From TrEMBL:
Entry protein name: tRNA (guanine-N(1)-)-methyltransferase
Subcellular locations according to the entry: Cytoplasm
One GO cellular component, as annotated: cytosol
One example GO MF annotation: tRNA (guanine(37)-N1)-methyltransferase activity
Function: Specifically methylates guanosine-37 in various tRNAs.
Record-linked Pfam families: tRNA_m1G_MT
């Protein structure tokens, strides 16, 4: 996969040299190019922003350097999928990460200040797909942090990046993974640490009992931390035991409607 990232802070992306993504780059699984937007400015101050039309606080990123940057990185005929992080965009989800992981080429545009002049995205849409994407209902100082999050979420899905490909299938929010329940608690050696033992069922070797325990814990954690996800579960996917676990966790379920 090819990734192009345009930013006024290229040094922000040093983390892409380490851990799984760094290894993926060295192995040729990720071809990452980080571009300094100021390289497409033409004044001695390398200006990338100006005051907003209509008044108001803050500054807006100018269209001219962005237009030249996109023309250079994706000339006519080249069609990456362009992603613009913004609080006003569509939510970034695991399903969207999976969708992006299937793309051969992603181009990230890191906005700053009050954002990028809206004409940049409008013009880009005439020659490439453009997505405005949000990490959540909060505001960051710029798009760089959001891009790092998205690149890691997407990059780890690429074949060969994770040592164990099955890890992806068990992720929280993975499409088809336990109806998007959160993952339950995990444990490793030693069996007892600071007088806290690993649950006996995980040491039992009984695969059916372990699977049941893991589902129960996933239901409990999801009911506690993300009740809206439980509310969206398909009733046909819940058996009587599931309903009992949810009731014990304090989640109000209607047995008549949800049991199959």
């Amino acid at each position: 996969m090819k990734l192009d990232i345009v930013t006024i802070f290229p040094e922000y992306f040093a983390p892409l040299e380490v851990s799984l993504l760094g290894k993926a780059r060295r192995n040729g699984l990720l071809d990452v190019h980080v571009h300094d937007l100021r390289d497409w400015t033409h004044d001695r101050h390398r200006t990338v922003d100006d005051t907003p039309y209509g008044g108001g606080p803050g500054m807006v990123m100018k269209p001219e350097p962005w237009g030249e940057a996109l023309d250079t990185i994706a000339p006519p005929g080249a069609t990456p999928r362009m992603i613009v992080p913004t609080p006003s965009g569509r939510p970034f989800t695991q399903a969207l990460a999976v969708e992006y992981a299937a793309e051969p080429w992603l181009l990230f545009a890191c906005g700053r200040y009050e954002g990028i002049d809206s004409r940049v995205a409008d013009e880009a849409r005439t020659r490439m797909p453009v997505d405005e994407v949000s990490l959540g209902d909060f505001v960051l100082a710029g798009g760089e942090v959001a891009v790092l999050v998205m690149v890691e979420a997407v990059g780890r899905l690429l074949p060969g990046v994770l040592g164990n490909a099955d890890s992806v299938a068990d992720d929280s929010f993975a499409p088809g993974a336990m109806e998007s329940l959160l993952e339950g608690p995990v444990y490793t050696k030693p069996p007892t640490w600071r007088e806290r033992p690993v649950p006996d069922v995980l040491l039992s070797g009984h695969h059916g009992a372990i699977a049941r325990w893991r589902r129960d814990e996933a239901l409990r954690r999801t009911a506690r931390n993300r009740p809206e996800l439980v509310a969206r579960l398909d009733p046909a996917s819940l058996d009587k035991h599931d309903l009992d676990v949810l009731r014990e966790a304090g989640f109000p379920v209607d047995g008549e409607d949800m049991a199959h």
